[in-house]
């Protein structure tokens, strides 16, 4: 079941070690994640309701910020994938209140930047 945690860890393959990051602003599980423009973006997920929120971690500043716009297509969690692309973040699949989704799309979490 859902557990109210805000833990975020990242793996450094060069040092072969895991590092704790500062916690994201809200607890979330089953979110999609990818690097976009030098920042780690987590989007969607479950907290304990379906979420269309997105947050970005800036490693230079060591802090999280909420992305300016909601996830297109509405809330999604679990079974979704994310990958960085020159135009933003590619989100595929996932699950929402109506069941499994077969959609895919490109989304810019930082419009105007």
Average per-residue pLDDT, rounded, comes to 79
Radius of gyration from CA coordinates:
14 Å
Low-confidence stretches: none
The biggest sheet amounts to:
4 strands, antiparallel
Please bin the fraction of helical residues. Answer: under 10%
Classification by helices and strands: mainly beta
Compute the number of helices: 0
Strand order of the largest sheet: 3-4-5-6
Distance between the termini: 38 Å
Bin the strand percentage.
over 45%
Observed structural traits:
about 0% helix; about 45% strand; four-stranded antiparallel sheet; about 110 residues; globular; 10 strands; mainly beta
Q: What does the model show?
A:
- This protein is mostly beta strands and 113 residues long.
- The chain contains no helices and ten strands.
- The strands form three sheets. The protein has a four-stranded antiparallel sheet, with no helix packed on it. Strands 7, 8, 9 and 10 form a four-stranded antiparallel sheet that branches.
- The radius of gyration is 14 Å and the shape is globular.
- It starts with 8 loop residues before the first strand and ends in a 6-residue tail after the last strand.
- The model has no long low-confidence stretch (mean pLDDT 79).
- InterPro entries: Kelch-typ_b-propeller, Kelch_1.
């Amino acid at each position: 079941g859902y557990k109210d945690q805000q833990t975020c860890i990242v793996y450094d393959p060069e040092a072969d070690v895991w590092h704790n990051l500062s916690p994201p602003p809200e607890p979330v599980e089953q979110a999609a994640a990818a690097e976009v423009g030098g920042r780690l973006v987590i989007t969607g997920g479950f907290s304990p309701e379906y979420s269309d929120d997105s947050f970005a971690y800036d490693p230079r500043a060591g802090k999280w910020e909420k992305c300016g716009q909601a996830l297109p297509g509405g809330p999604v969690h679990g079974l979704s994938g994310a990958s960085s692309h020159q135009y933003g973040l590619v989100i595929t699949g996932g699950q929402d209140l109506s069941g499994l989704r077969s959609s895919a799309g490109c989304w810019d979490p930082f419009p105007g930047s």
